[in-house]
Design goal:
Alpha-Beta Plaits; five-stranded mixed sheet
């Protein structure tokens, strides 16, 4: 599919939002967190991704709304490492607490 690039300044003026997502399925020990970091960095988002004790993965991403929604589309795309069965997600106001995007 290639890179998902937009012209510079395409998201200027957009409100920064926060995505809180819980991704369930076969998403641990398959490279899912590192794939998510790569996608988020490509989109210029900040935040974190981490494994949860119940076998799911938590994704928190902040940035322009169009970019955050693109990440959410990718999480739901079926083209991720492993197997995603469900994505529970909410979008709210960004906190500005993150610098860069990290896997924990």
């Amino acid at each position: 599919m290639g890179r998902h690039e937009r012209p510079a300044g395409d998201d200027s003026g957009q409100e920064a939002v926060r995505l809180d997502a819980r991704v369930s399925g076969m998403v641990q020990a398959v490279g899912f967190r590192y794939w998510t970091v790569g996608q988020a960095e490509e989109l210029g988002l900040s935040g974190e991704v981490r494994n949860l004790d119940d076998g799911s993965v938590s994704v928190v991403a902040e940035g322009p709304e169009s970019k955050v929604r693109q990440l959410l589309e990718w999480l739901n795309s079926g083209r991720t490492p492993g197997r995603v069965d469900d994505v529970e997600a909410s979008v709210s106001e960004a906190s500005g607490a993150f610098r860069g995007f990290r896997a924990h």
